[in-house]
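Quick start: what a row looks like.
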Amino acid sequence: MRALFPEPSSAVDLEAAYAPGDDTATARRLVRINMISSLDGAISVKGRSGLLGGPGDKEVFDVLRSLADVIVVGAGTARAERYGPARVSAEHQARRRARGQTAVPPIAVVTRSCHLDWSSPFFTDAEARPIVVTTADADEEARRRAIAVADVVDAGTGDVDLATAFVALSARGARHLVVEGGPGLNAQVVAAGLMDELCLTLSPRLVAGDGPRVLAGPELAEPFDLSVAHVLEADGFLFLRLRSRAILPPG
C-alpha cells in the first residue's frame, strides 16, 4: 500500500491513515460509509461485492472495522453478503482495549420489519452482542425473538429514523460508526445529513449491468460536496478517504 495524496509515500500505516483524529473522536460522533465500486459504478457482481475486491480492500475493510465502535448494516445487505459476526485480530483487539473500546465491535443491523434469521451465526456466534435497529411498531413476536439474541434499539415508527438511531447508539457510547451499506441505507444516511466521511475503494474493473450505485434512492436536492483527505493505491485499487465539507475545520 502506498500513498498518492496528499503526501506521496511508499509505505502506509493504515490504522494511522484512517484514524478518526482526537478532536473528532472526543468532541462529536463520526459516521463513515465504507463501500467499494467498479470504475463504471457497480457495487457488486452477481449480487455480491467480494468479486470487486482484493487483498488491499480487505485490509482497509478490516482496519475500518477495528477502529469502529459500532458497525451498521442494512438487513438486505446482511442477507445478500451472508454476514457473520465481526472478527478482529488479536493485535487489533489489544489496540482497541488500549483505546478504551470493547475488544470486538458489535454489528447493528437496520431492519424496518424486524424479520431476520435469529438462528443464523450472525446472532448465535457473535462475540459482541448484535444490535437490532428497528421501529417502535415492529411485529411484537419478531421483537420478542430479537430481544432474546440482540440488543434492540427503537427508532421511529413505520420506518427507521436513522437520526434517532444514531443518537441512541451514541448514548450507548458509540462515537465512531462505520456504515457498510447497502446503497439504500447509504442514501438515507446522506439525505439525513448524517455522513461525515466516505471511504471508497475504486476497483480497477468494469462490470456494466444496471445494478445500484453507492447510493440508491431519490436524487438529492443538491449534490453533496466532499473533500479528498487521502488517496492510497495497491495493485491498481484506489482507496479514497473523502470528508464532508460540513465538518472540515476552517481553512
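That is the whole record. The first helix runs from residue 14 to 17. Residues 28-104+114-122+171-231 form a domain with the Dihydrofolate Reductase, subunit A fold (CATH 3.40.430.10).
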